[in-house]
Amino acid sequence: MNSLRSTIKSLYDGQNTRSRRFRYGLILFDSLTIIYFIATAALPSTPVITAVNAFFGLFILFDLAARLWISTNLRKELTRIYTCLLYTSDAADEGLGVDLGGRRI
Q: Is 77:68 a contact under the CB 8 Å cutoff?
């Protein structure tokens, strides 16, 4: 388990080529996700859109879980603005049934 944790930490924090490619991949994924949400925001919800939204949501959840798992300061990680926005958005979506950030309920 420590080997997996050190590998993930290396991907997020390392300075080698593999780590840089991983982080560029995350940036590309973020960019494509934003484009997707903008492009589909006005479309009616279909099973395909729901499945793609679920895929993006799971990937983002795994990314957050990995960041929290390797964090040396969990409190600092949880108070970063993007983490707060993620949880706030989830709570608002669940409670109000609204669309925040392109996600549908």
A: yes
- Amino acid code (one letter) for 30: D
Question: What is the tens place of the pLDDT at every residue in 77-103?
Answer: 777 756 555 544 544 444 444 454 544
Q: Which of 59, 67, 99 is nearest to 83 (CA)?
A: 67
Instruction: List b or e across 26-38, with b for residues whose CB sees 16 or more CB atoms inside 10 angstroms.
Output: eeeeeeebeeebe
23 SS3 class:
helix
CA 105 and chain centroid, separation: 17
Q: What is the pTM of this model?
A: 0.67
Cα separation, 9 vs 23, whole angstroms: 12
For residue 32, what are its two tokens? 């494509």
Look up residue 75 and give its amino acid.
Answer: R
